[in-house]
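Below is a filled-in request sheet from our internal design queue. Each sheet records the structural input a requester submitted and the sequence that came back. We keep these sheets so that new team members can see what a complete request looks like end to end.

REQUESTER: design group, bay 2
PRIORITY: normal
MODE: inverse folding
CHAIN LENGTH: 204
BACKBONE (tokenized):
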């Protein structure tokens, strides 16, 4: 078991000079320099074309409903170990070819190159190269999405809370708390708040 993880454990961490932070507006993460990945492959398996290589399988574009165009690439990575070539290690990547900006549309003549680079990175990830970064990026993405969901829930619950408080006279607060077995308005659940609003003739 440990032998199978030797390569993974050796290259799961990425040196600081091969990392670059990013923030795409939805979540924050870290990009890995592709040349570092290629150095790892060369260091371990030999020169490109002799100890490892990749070949493009497919290049294509897809257009969004907003008119932006993405370039995608699918590649297969091969490595040679103990004189034997591996099965293909697949990777798919993408980048924007045409994007909408405030001043109009903007195209990139490097979109396919960056898509291929992205695909190589995905294939290398399957070997464990930079695994810790991918782990953290997934964690960050998950955390950001959960945070966004919670924020939406809080906003929604706050609106119910305000509606319920507007429908109840302040002198009746304690009786309401006793009835629902809570100590304050903040302890009410969304379901309880909806129940209060409906009983007072409000709409939810």
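RETURNED SEQUENCE:
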């Amino acid at each position: 078991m440990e032998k199978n993880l030797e390569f993974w454990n050796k290259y799961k961490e990425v040196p600081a000079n091969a990392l670059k932070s990013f923030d795409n507006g939805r979540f924050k993460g870290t990009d890995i320099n592709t040349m570092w990945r290629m150095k790892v492959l060369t260091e371990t398996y030999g020169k490109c074309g002799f100890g490892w290589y990749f070949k493009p399988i497919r290049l294509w574009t897809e257009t969004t409903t907003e008119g932006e165009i993405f370039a995608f690439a699918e590649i297969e990575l091969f490595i040679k170990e103990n004189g034997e070539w591996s099965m293909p290690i697949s990777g798919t990547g993408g980048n924007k070819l045409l994007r909408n900006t405030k001043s109009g549309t903007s195209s990139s003549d490097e979109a396919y190159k960056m898509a291929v680079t992205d695909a190589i990175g995905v294939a290398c990830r399957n070997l464990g190269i930079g695994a810790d970064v991918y782990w953290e990026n997934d964690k960050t993405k998950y955390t950001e999405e959960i945070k966004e969901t919670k924020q939406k829930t809080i906003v929604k619950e706050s609106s119910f809370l305000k509606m319920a408080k507007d429908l109840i006279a302040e002198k009746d607060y304690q009786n309401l708390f006793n009835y629902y077995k809570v100590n304050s308005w903040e302890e009410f659940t969304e379901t309880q708040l909806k129940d209060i609003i409906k009983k007072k003739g409000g709409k939810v």
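SHEET NOTES:
- Strands lie at 19-23, 28-32, 52-63, 69-81, 84-85, 89-101, 104-107.
- The longest strand covers residues 69-81.
FILED BY: M.R.
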